[in-house]
Design brief:
Length: 185
């Protein structure tokens, strides 16, 4: 395990975006795999490899570049100057992440992208339908999981490992998202 982490460390320092794209795609695919295996929409349902590939594509090509940039922006632009700088910067970063990114970028991007990747037409109607059934439950669940984790992530983890840390916790989160995407009308 130590050797694997050493290789990852070398890659993340040399090619951060590419490394984040590969790891994010893999881990979103893992979340979809778990959702299909543990929570099938119908008993005896065959495994949908195309669905998993869509999750891998979304994670690696759409979300990873955005997440990579997001954590770097938070680290450099959201900084408290003064007393308790580290603690206050962490609080601000969590607040911006949870009050800006999650409700206005992360969750809408996921549902809109996956609806388009699934070729559910008419796109706008299907996206609005997904938002009406899933947006608030997803956002509320997000606020139960992510603020606490992000506090530790922003406070303890170096910026170049933050997306990986999020991705590891996201195996469970992505399982939940995939379940919600495919099990609410």
């Amino acid at each position: 395990m130590k050797r694997l982490f050493g290789k990852y460390h070398q890659l993340i320092l040399r090619k951060p975006l590419l490394t984040n794209m590969i790891s994010t795609g893999f881990l979103l695919g893992t979340g979809d795999c778990l959702a299909q295996t543990l929570f099938p929409t119908q008993p005896g349902q065959p495994y949908d490899w195309i669905r998993t590939l869509r999750a891998v594509f979304y994670g690696g090509v759409i979300f990873a570049p955005l997440g990579d940039k997001w954590y770097k922006i938070l680290n450099t632009k959201i900084v408290w100057r003064g007393k308790n700088e580290r603690t206050m910067s962490t609080i601000l970063r969590v607040a911006v992440d949870q009050l800006v990114f999650a409700p206005f970028i992360g969750i809408p991007l996921y549902y809109a992208s996956m609806t388009i990747l699934e070729n559910r037409q008419p796109y706008l109607d299907r996206i609005l339908e997904k938002f009406s059934t899933s947006y608030w439950p997803t956002l509320r669940s997000n606020w139960l999981v992510w603020p606490i984790f992000q506090w530790f992530n922003f406070y303890l983890i170096p910026v170049h490992y933050r997306l990986l840390a999020v991705n590891l916790i996201s195996i469970g989160w992505n399982t939940y998202l995939s379940f919600v995407l495919h099990n609410t009308k």
